[in-house]
Amino acid sequence: MASRDIHGIDAPWGAFRHVGRDLRKVDGLAKATGAAMYTDDIALPGMLHAKTLRSPHAHARIRSIDAADALRLAGVHAVITGEHLPVTYGILPWTQDETALAVGKVRFVGEPVAAVAAVDEDAANAALKLIRVEYEPLHAYLDPFESLARHDPPIHEGRKDGNVSKHVHLAFGDVDAALAEADVVIEDDYVFHGTTHAAIEPHCAVGHYGADGVLTVWSSTQITHYVHRALARVLDVPAHRIRVIQPCLGGAFGGKSDPFSLEFVVAKLAMTTGRPVKMLYTREEVFYTHRGRHPMHMRYRTGATREGRLVGVDATIVIDGGAYSSYGLVTTYYAGQLLTGPYAFATYRFDSTRAFTNKPPCGPKRGHGSVQPRFAFEVQLDELASTLEIDPIEIRRRNLLGEHTTTVNGQRITSNGFARCLDVVEHASNWKTRHGQLPFGRGMGVAGSMYISGTNYPIYPNPMPQAAVQLKIDRSGLVTVFTGANDIGQGSNSIAQYLVAEELGLALDQVRVVSADTDLCPVDLGAYSSRETFMVGNALIDACRKVRPLVVRAVADHWQVDPSRVRFVDGVVVELDDPPLQPAGVAVGGEARPGASPPDAAAGRRWMTAAEAFQLAEARFDTLGATGAYNTPTLGGDYRGGTIGAAPAYSFTAHVVEVSVDVETGRITCEKVWIAHDCGRALNPMLVAGQMEGSAYMGVAEALMEAHGVNRFGLHAGPSLLDYRIPTTVDTPELAALIVESLDPEGPYGAKEAGEGPLHPAIPAISNAVFDAVGIRLKHLPFTPGKVLAALRARKDAAAGTPAPALAGGAR
Amino acid sequence: MLRLPRFELRQPTSLGEAVTLLREEGAGAMVMAGGTDLLPNMKHELFTPRVVVSLGRVPELRGITRDPDGTLVVGAMARIAEIASSESVRKQAPALAQAAGLVAGPQLRRAGTIGGNVLLDTRCQYYNQSYFWRSALGFCLKKDGVVCHVVAGGSRCVAAASADCAPALMTLGAVLEIVGANGHRTVAIDEFWLGDGIVNRRLAVGEILVAIRIPPTPPGHRGAYGKLRERGSIDFPLLGVACRLDVGDGDRVEHGDLVLTALAARPKRIPQAASRLVSTRLGTEEFRAAIDELGALAHRQCHTLANVPGDQEWRREMIPVYVRRTLQAAAAGNGPVHHV
Amino acid sequence: MHLKVNGDVHDVDAPDHWTLLEVLRYRLGLTGSKQGCDKGDCGACTVLVDGEPMISCLILAREAEGREIVTIEGLWPLHLARGGEGPDPVQDAFDRYGALQCGFCQSGMILSARALLDRTPSPTDEEIARALSGNLCRCTGYTQILQAVQSIVARARGVEPPRRSWEAANVGRQAGER
Ligand SMILES: Cc1cc2nc3c(=O)[nH]c(=O)nc-3n(C[C@H](O)[C@H](O)[C@H](O)COP(=O)(O)OP(=O)(O)OC[C@H]3O[C@@H](n4cnc5c(N)ncnc54)[C@H](O)[C@@H]3O)c2cc1C
Ligand code: SF4
Ligand code: FES
Ligand code: FES
User: Fold this and answer.
1) Which of A22, A433, A569, A754 has the smallest set of CB atoms within 10 Å of its CB?
2) What is the rounded average pLDDT of the residues A278-293?
3) CA angle A38-A43-A45, nearest 5°?
4) In the predicted structure, residue A590 carries a pLDDT above the cut 70
5) From the CB of residue A712, how many other CB atoms can be counted at a distance below 10 Å?
6) How crowded is the C-beta side of B53, counted as CA atoms within 13 Å?
7) Can you tell me the distance from the alpha carbon of A348 to that of A338, in angstroms, rounded to the nearest whole number?
8) Which H helix or E strand runs over B10?
9) Among 3.40.50.880, 3.50.50.60, 3.30.43.10, 3.40.50.2300, what is the CATH number of B8-56?
């Protein structure tokens, strides 16, 4: 296994042919013409439709379930309850606390209790109404502080620590001493409300059980491999008899990265009935499934010298986890572990506690665990800047972490383009002539962030590759890539095509990608932690570099030249001059047609098509193919939890946002966001920009509009896309994606991530811009007009009465 | 999918046929125009009619025409988008055109009708939910239950009138033409409402709204609509303000009106609007004082409730702001008042 | 019932309570029209009815009888039938401009854009944004979608589409790259 191979950042044949260009996606036209198949587009002969009965109680014991009437209904084929699927599961091996259908107890409104398979959805729905469940309601915990204060009755029985889902306390250096000596300390409370992913495709799964005992599950998942493992565990079917396929996926953002009830249910129902079974969640059910961004209550103390240098950061965080663990253990670490860049902290301490509550379970959403603390901290930093009368961009520059260094909590930093990100947004937004100088009601704010590009930690500890691929080289001239990676719209299949075409010197249409099918593809852990481009990209290059020499050798021997004189360019193989020069005169870009003669042929150079070259190689070395793999180097701090948050590379982002505030209505309008993001190398700048824009949009939405929560009755406050308001075209600010490339030494051609990092700064940058616009500090999300008006009134009252202290936390 | 409950669809091709069908089917039938309110509500099992009578094929209900006396006759099946872009509506009834232009999103404005908008079911965050959700809550007065979750202990439903066009039509003195088994009747839109959120309009079972008659407005007529909502598209109003200023010689207001919606079961007129505005001159201090005062009056007279989702205190605070801005816009011949 | 979809008349059997979206997807196998909410909130199910974008999850299938329905699957063949080459220019521009991330919103989005351009060949940026304001996209932040439509308008006007932020501002690039 070629783990830890560093492939370099240079083009394999001299100059890049595909990388760095705004290329189309492999599946773009399939999506644009409606041909792409998503999970709910699958219809199998004889397929049944399944529906879920859900808990109307936030917390209750199940006394009895009677499904006799439902089973008697015409068209109903099966009803299952928790007793049919009693085995627990969970994304993390340490916290397997979920069951597909409730066993004994329900812990939030909307939790699955029973499932029906029927001839159609109408019959299944009718059957649900006939299932009688007797509940014994229990006290429902809707507030994490209450969960921590008492746990009788507990949400999960048999735990030593009551309703505590996870507690982490880590300290690096003597924070108390540092803060005591600091010239200035900012101390305040920050609240991040909950938000959810709201991918437009609702979750869907189809199960098929063959008479041969092979179980196939198609699912709208971003983690095929973990679903595979979980199915084997819960259904007690050996993994080799299970096949999981992710069809085209309609958005995920972390919301499809747990194994979910429906996947087990369709599998079980297919096994029970001998018929294929589909379950499609309604939008409302998607909101109950949730796993969205955790609400966090955060207390931060940040100390600095008079010059604005950070001496210590101290955080206490209470996390509202919802009813189950999901990724909560990791979230609790991430809430602290991911804050230690892009600024150097001299000392740091965090204490984070995740509490169970009787609400839909929270989990990972784009920027998992770190968006909330980032908001709090970047607002603190801004307050520090205004207190010390230092320009907000300048104070960030004074604390740069730098590249090829280690953070206070022991994370290895390789490339770091953050300083350039700051330069870029400062320049593009005309910050120097505008910040602090716009008329009242208009303002600009800045914020920065850092995010992991892959994680060194597989979700279940194992020494096997974290990413693996396989190439099939066909005598037709086609290379098929088999990768377990989950393309969730971010374009990982396209990246695979570009990289393989680049490495092997092929035209793009000579590479096709088969992904996320456990029967066909080597294991990849999935689309989370921004790992696909980095890890799968490295695995792809690894595979290409195993097979490329064979083909080159076969051609070289055929021509009886040194292999260094054989070059693949866009699907043709040409003989280079001796000594080798750059392949002069070969048309750049374009979709080269194998068989067409390159311009060099006229110059009397020898050439052949890639297909001919593959045939020579196949004759010589037998069937051509290769596997490739990637594993991160050993990373992380040498302490318990030190590997959580350790990544082979980190991306960096800076935003400047411009807002206007209507002081009469309190409404904040985000006018424009300048997004500078260090993605290492932009393998396809257009796709990178798409990720940056989509991230920034989502951040702005979380700041201004979206709120996911339950009402005072414990019911979801509005489980629809009407009441959970995501911005439309006319609500979205102008987004300027400004790509910064730092060329990471370990990324594929220097690439890092772009899908999650660029979300972070939007939220604090808006708060900071509002301060610039109207002089109020918004610390509780979302920044609703009502809060703005209240803050404006408070400011006015303070101005009228005794002047407010310059520092919220008091200067020392 | 979020399935519709089963029903039988009838598609009459004349008004007479529709009336007969409805008489035959009685309370088990419901009328469908564009279906953009009825169908989501049926998917939530708020209505489970045995028969749905579509008006889609009834030619008598279509079109926007003008009577010889200048009355604008808007067929009940005129689409919201048609109204928003109609030249005659824009001229004669600018507040209506503006309100129509802010209904829902572009696709729904093409399907939704003015009749369906006037007859839009009242809305409430505890009501416009799925059957499951409502059952988990224990239902409410308006449908299947016995309590109100908005007004604790309340014996009356206060679900919000949420149609954008209705308040505009009120400022225009619109008259509704209705046909039923007992024949034809007309009713001034002001007289049409009931204060009951369960059913807020006086339309008997089997009756069909045929057209809306908008009396001619004088040459100096100005009107505007202000809509408070969270997003710039799709969302129902969190507050709607329609106003009218008929301006005569010397920019003097000769008639004024102010109606608010998305508060309680029916749109609310501010009765003092006319007297306070009449004879003030646009652009003067006096006019400014009048609209400020009306804002304050409206604030006093209108209360926001937790029927509509969102921050009800903020909605209340927005009443004077939107009243003032909408009147200003009308005075300036502008509008609508909307944040994007 | 007889439904005219993408130029073909289909004889379909479906109960009265089936929506047009359900019939398209589950009776005719035209699964390009997507469902994201099934109650009018998201626009993923947008199809063209007599040339106008409509929400197919809130139209009863039988109500669509006698109307011309065009779904996303119809655009390319229609374009070819009219003598065009390749996919419909809107589909092509969406692909070319990176507008297709997960793609789930895009059949509705593309049809809304198609109808706009049929109606108003040279819309302003604001008109484009408004015409698409009933189609929610969760992936793109809309920027590349708007750019795709703007590029078609620009071409029709015979001008170059505006440069995109990352092309115009080369400040972030390392010297000598690309
Ligand atoms: C996502 C979404 C957003 C929306 N946003 C808004 C908004 O911002 N503002 C707004 O005002 N509305 C909004 N609506 C509601 C609706 O789209 C409009 O009000 C539309 O105008 C309703 O017209 P329709 O023809 O579709 O009504 P239908 O749904 O067909 O009918 C509504 C009601 O009126 C009855 N009815 C209709 N026509 C007649 C008639 N001629 N005679 C007798 N009874 C009749 C029906 O029986 C039904 O009870 C929204 C809807 C959705 C789904
Ligand atoms: S106001 Fe709302 S909760 Fe109260 S009865 Fe009416 S619909 Fe139900
Ligand atoms: S699926 Fe029809 S609007 Fe969402
Ligand atoms: S591309 Fe994914 S929702 Fe628009």
Assistant:
1) A433
2) 98
3) 160
4) no
5) 9
6) 25
7) 12
8) strand B8-10
9) 3.30.43.10
Q: What CATH code is assigned to B59-120+160-214? A: 3.30.465.10
Nearest to B46 by CA among B140, B160, B115, B113: B140
CATH superfamily for domain A39-138+202-249+256-289: Aldehyde oxidase/xanthine dehydrogenase, a/b hammerhead (3.90.1170.50)
Q: Are A35 and C25 in contact (CB under 8 A)?
A: no
Q: Is this complex scored with an ipTM above 0.90?
A: yes
Rg (chain B; Cα; Å): 20
Whether the model clears a pTM of 0.90, i.e. scores above it, the answer is: yes
> Which of B44, B137, B142, B162 has most ligand 2 atoms within 8 Å of its beta carbon, as the pocket-test mutant?
B142
Is the CATH number 3.40.718.10 carried by domain B221-332? Answer: no
Find all residues with CB under 8 Å of B221, minimum gap 6, and list them: B92, B94, B244, B245, B246, B247
| Residue B292 token pair | 């400020």
Measured CA to CA, the distance from residue A278 to residue A42 in angstroms comes to 9
Q: Which of C31, C129, C144 sits opposite A693 (nearest CB)?
A: C144
Q: How confident is the model at residue A802 (pLDDT cuts 50, 70, 90)?
A: low
Q: How far is A125 from chain C (nearest CA, A)?
A: 15
Residues A759 and A756: their CA atoms lie apart, in Å, by: 6
Q: What is the DSSP string of A128-151?
A: HTT-EEEEEE-----SHHHHHH--
CA B252 to mean position of chain CA atoms: 29
Taking the centre of ligand 3 as the mean of its atom positions, its distance from the CA of residue C135, in whole angstroms, is: 9
Residue with tokens 């290379």: A479
| C-alpha gyration radius of chain A | 28
Residue whose CA is closest, atom 3 of ligand 3? C40
Q: Which fold has domain C82-168?
A: DNA polymerase; domain 1 (1.10.150)
What distance in Å separates the CA atoms of residue C22 and residue B43, rounded to the nearest whole number?
14
The answer to whether B311 touches A784, Cβ cutoff 8 Å, is: yes
Which of A92, A89, A3 minimizes the C-alpha distance to A460? A92
Provide φ and ψ at A510, rounded to 5°: -95, 5
Residue of C nearest to A720 (CA): C37
Q: Which architecture, in CATH terms, is A370-454+647-801?
A: 2-Layer Sandwich (3.30)
Q: Which token pair is A724?
A: 């959970």
Q: What was the pLDDT predicted at A578?
A: 63
User: A611-637 burial string, b = 16+ CB within 10 Å, else e?
Assistant: bbbbbbbbeeeeebbbbbbbbbeebbb
A808 band by pLDDT with thresholds 50, 70 and 90? very low
Q: What is the dihedral of CA B85, B90, B96, B97, to 10 degrees?
A: 30
Partners of A452 in the β-ladder: A650
In a 3-state reduction of DSSP, which class is residue A737?
Answer: strand
Q: Are the beta carbons of A168 and A336 closer than 8 angstroms? A: yes
Torsion angle (degrees, nearest 10) of CA A604, A610, A611, A614: 110
Which pLDDT score, from 0 to 100, does residue C168 have? 72
pLDDT over 60 (residue A601): no
Domain ranges of chain A: 2-36+465-630, 39-138+202-249+256-289, 370-454+647-801
Give pLDDT, residue C169.
55
The one-letter amino acid at B309? P
Q: Which ligand is nearest to the CA of B37?
A: 1
What is the band of C176 on the pLDDT scale with cuts at 50, 70, 90?
Answer: very low
Compare all CA atoms of chain A with the CA of C102 and give the residue at the minimum distance: A489
CA of B198 from ligand 2 middle (Å) equals 8
**Structure tokens belonging to residue A707:** 């709120």
Q: Is it the case that residue A487 has pLDDT exceeding 50?
A: yes
Q: Rounded to 5 degrees, what are φ and ψ at A757?
A: -50, -45
Q: Does B47 touch chain C (CB under 8 A)?
A: no
